[in-house]
Write a structure and sequence with these properties.
This protein is an alpha/beta fold. The protein has helices spanning 34-45, 60-68, 84-89, 91-112, 147-166, 188-196, 219-231, 248-258, 281-287; strands at 25-29, 49-53, 72-77, 117-123, 135-136, 170-175, 177-179, 204-206, 213-214, 216-218, 236-240, 246-247, 264-266, 275-278. The strands form 4 sheets. The chain has a 6-stranded parallel beta sheet, with helices on both faces. Strands 5-14-9-12 form a 4-stranded mixed beta sheet. Strands 7-10 form a two-stranded parallel ribbon. The protein is globular.
């Protein structure tokens, strides 16, 4: 989906030329996903060497052989089972991929990459949505409402404990909602796009919980934030969002306008309106450091 749907956060700087990264190798998992794929493309466009592990993170033999081939100075771990419906359908696979797979990555980096900074991609799903549009800081209680969120929180704790014990540098990025043209349903924007495309001007779109609020941005902006954190070797846990929220009905209207449709959006809030909006204070301070 076009970046014009959502404005670039005002605090987000444009990424530099990353000249300091030249001569090294960047490691990556999840290169077939939206964020991992975008990061790989962005780095290669800048002439940087990127090696992506596209296998199963629980194939420990293949992972060990792959890691031993390279010397990484930065490593980005995106590989995960993400759609909540898929996670619920196969919780064992989800836990194995999201948690045990993360352990396998940490173990191999410990064995083969003594000086490597790690970025672990987590999710805002570790937080409980709020009833008001209050911004959620990294210090807020982590009460995941879904099993997907539980797996991401377990992986976070694993990284923090292991890397803290080993005194290795790491950054955990809790990524809030994002969208991109490569996404497909059941993600929010592509689902709305598929439903709105056949509508005519004046039609009404029925949505569930239209007053729910998302902190959503273009996937390219997420990558810019991650690159900024990596360039600064940021450590600890940081929210990656915009700090602002949009109701689902407004997101639907933006999608409609992008398709040239003039529609109305209606629906019933079947639960208390829920909001997930990032407190971006720490992200802003790190990117401006």
């Amino acid at each position: 989906m076009s970046a014009s749907l959502f404005e670039r956060p005002g605090f987000l700087p444009e990424p530099g030329d990353l000249a300091a990264w030249r001569g090294g190798t960047v490691g990556l998992t999840g290169g077939s996903g939206v964020l991992g794929g975008l990061l790989r493309e962005r780095l290669r466009e800048r002439g940087l060497r990127v090696e992506a592990y596209d296998g199963d993170v629980n194939d420990t033999g293949a992972l060990a052989v792959w890691c031993a081939k390279y010397s990484f100075n930065r490593f980005f771990h995106f590989a995960a089972l993400v759609p909540v419906s898929q996670v619920e359908a196969d919780p064992l696979l989800a836990y194995g991929t999201n948690v045990i797979g993360t352990f396998n990555i940490c173990r191999q980096l410990r064995l083969t990459q003594p000086d490597c900074w790690l970025f672990h991609c987590s999710s805002s799903h570790v937080y409980q949505p709020t009833a008001s549009a209050a911004r959620i800081s990294e210090l807020a209680p982590t009460v995941p409402p879904t099993f997907y969120g539980e797996t991401k929180l377990a992986a976070e704790r694993l990284v923090a404990v292991l890397y803290g014990k080993l005194r290795r540098p790491y950054c955990i990025g809790r990524v809030f909602s994002f969208t991109h043209a490569r996404q497909a349903p059941p993600y929010l924007v592509p689902s709305l796009r598929a439903r709105i495309a056949p509508l005519r001007d004046g039609d009404a779109l029925e949505v569930e919980n239209p007053s729910s609020v998302r902190d959503i941005q273009d996937a390219g902006h997420v990558i810019d934030a991650i690159l900024g954190l990596a360039a600064r070797h940021a450590t600890g846990t940081v929210n990656i969002g915009t700090g602002t929220g949009l109701e689902v009905r407004e997101i639907a209207l933006r999608v409609a306008r992008s398709l040239g449709r003039q529609i109305t959006v209606r629906g019933v809030d079947r639960a208390l309106p829920a909001a997930l909006i990032a407190d971006t204070s720490r992200l802003e301070s790190l990117l401006c450091a």
